[in-house]
Design goal:
Elements: H1 3-23, E1 30-35, E2 53-64, H2 70-79, E3 85-89, H3 94-97, E4 114-126, E5 129-134, H4 137-140, E6 158-159, H5 165-181, E7 186-195, H6 202-212, E8 218-223, E9 226-230, E10 235-240, E11 243-247, E12 249-254, H7 259-271, H8 273-291, E13 300-309, E14 313-323, H9 330-337, E15 345-346, H10 348-358, E16 369-373, E17 379-382, E18 387-391, E19 396-405, H11 411-428, E20 431-432
Parallel strand pairs: 6-20
Antiparallel strand pairs: 1-2, 1-8, 2-4, 3-4, 3-16, 4-5, 7-15, 7-19, 8-9, 9-18, 10-11, 10-17, 11-14, 12-14, 13-14, 16-17, 18-19
Amino acid sequence: MKKNISTFFNELGSEGSARLLMNASSQFHTFSFLETGALKTASYNSAGNCYDFICAINSASEIYSPNSTFSEIQHFIFKNQGQWIFGHLNYDIKNRLEPSLSGNLTDPIGFPDFCLFIPETVISCQNGSITVWGNEANLVSIINLKIDEPVAENTEKHIVSTVSFEEYERNFQKIQHHLYRGDIYEINYCIPFIANNFNLNVPAIRLKQRLLSPAPFSVLYKFNHLWLSCASPERFIRKSGNKIISQPIKGTARRSGITVEDKASKEALLNSEKEKAENIMIVDLVRNDLSKVAQKGSVKVEELFGIYEFAHVFQMISTVSATLKNDLTFTDILKALFPPGSMTGAPKISAMKIIEETESFKRGLFSGTVGYIHPNGDFDFNVVIRSILYNDETKTVLIPAGGAITVHCNVIDEYNECLLKAQANLNLLSLELPIAEKAV
């Protein structure tokens, strides 16, 4: 890589480079812009590679479903050792991991179950310093773009289709029946918010989403005509050397921006026995999953019930770590831990079966993960939540949202939590709920 290209991005700076790269993303077949910035004060932020952002442009080589097996995925990783690998894994690869799961619902967007790719170009920003690897041609084509492209405002109001409160309540009762019978003790139940015939400038929306809802595991991701704009606050797994961590989220409270109200909301979340019970259930699930790949006695809860501030909500986040057994592959770890426990419930397989029976859509990339494998074998993957998914061929927008349900939950509160989690992205796109759903 010629020095002048790296110099150009460093002179442009972290923020200017981020905006330029995201504005240019439509030019490329595959594109992944990951903001892996640390959660403030969270454990293991300083360990290993942690980037302000890392961007992968175009695919030099790739592997994706529907036909590839896990052994073929691992062969692809082995064959490309020492190179950057980026990509995604859909929630629905659960069906390949557990034969009793089927999943015959419809995915409104259509991301393949997984894609891993070797990028032609990688640009990383670490502590404000930008480094460039790979194919210069990808960068020469974008350095003259305008940095501040205006966000396309929607002049026409769209109403999203979603699960009505009445349907939500019926499924809530079915879930409660399973809870009281002891089939599960927690489940993450999600509903879709869908808009059709919608023209969306995803890079512009991601820039606006990034400004309004900054989050430490955010992504702008493109595969062919499929897009993800994600403001995720949650890390799925991160490997640094022989250490692995997971940082599950369970527990949400609204932020108003008014200091007194926010202080009360934060304290209520920290002191909520219900929210702490939900959090610890998932912590136990993650501990159990990690124990499958961990050296004996090494699984630890580094932080329990951490309360973190985001633009619109407070989140309760815990950090679980372990020391990995020797000679494990990426797919060994994946099979033990996937899907993220915070997006299933517990016990995991029973919860996923009930999810299939009660949800109205195939989750696809939502509840899955996007991330990268470093040339040294370390990796970092998020949980795909707080997201806008878009199919640029069918002009379909999907904004899913959900929450944990236990025996202690109230149906109105849980439905409103789904609306709260979706509202920021609905507002961003000027999408409106049906009138009947606003007054629950």
